[in-house]
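Hey, resending since the last one bounced:
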Amino acid sequence: MNLRPQRLAELALKHSIAVVLVVMCVVMGLMSDKFFTTANWANVLNNLAVPGIVALGVALVVIAGGIDLSFSSMLTCCAALAAWLQPHGFFLALVGPILLGALLGALNGLIIVKAGANPLITTLGTQWLYLAALFILTEGLVVQGNTEGPFHLIANGRFMGVPLPILLLLLLAALVWMFATQTATGKYVYAYGSNPQGLRFAGVDADAVYLKAFVVMGLLVGIAGIVLSSRLGGVRPTEGNRYLLVVLTAVLLSGVSLSGGVGSLFHVLVAIVVLGVIDNSMVLLAVDYKYQQIIKGCVFILAVLYNNFTAKHLALMRVVRL
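The structure tokens again:
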């Protein structure tokens, strides 16, 4: 049996999200002369920095076989802390949110590992816990930071004409990719997602590996919180809620398996750009805001179906190839 067509079909399905992005760009380029302008793409990619950074961390947790729904509340807490710490010093405003993100991520991981709790239910609970705590501390008011100075430049500065958030997203993507593919811990994360018991039999502290995935996610959420705080200046207690759907949709569209063990961080970035192009297209085509929300909901449902379809058929293709 000639397996070359089979292999080509597998590659096409595996990288189908990249094909979708190319097709969407070509169509929008024909529909709007503003789509391929430098200013438009700088705006699209700049807006994707915060959800893109968070999606990298969430994808890592899903690859480990878990899920974390509290990232939106964690993001808001970290952004609010960054805004509150700005008057107390630039260094504190950078370090504080990252440490808080790592702490909250570790708390999620510890509850799940030590209590053997379901990650979906656990993080749904901590999502409301973190959000309620923030509301109590801020009394539901905006946490106002500085709109000038070095902290403001994090989200609004440029290097050689390129917005700093875009460069930060690319740098973090490279670092997370190196962690996931070039370190023993990163490879154990994939192994834990596919066969945690086998990892334990190999003598690896599997629970520690699982916990580290949540900590890394927390670190990334903390960094995203800094960028968000720098961009907005003032942070509302509900600010992170708008990123919940977009991050989950990106992880699903990227083909990361919800059962764990499979996922490409490159595809996560591509999926984030796809969602950014969809948002940008609706703005350029002047789609009414109400219908935009309907479209986003439909995209999320399609992402779930797409994730199930690719996981099932890629597994089948691998079996046939064997």
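The chain has 15 helices and four strands.

Sorry for the duplicate.
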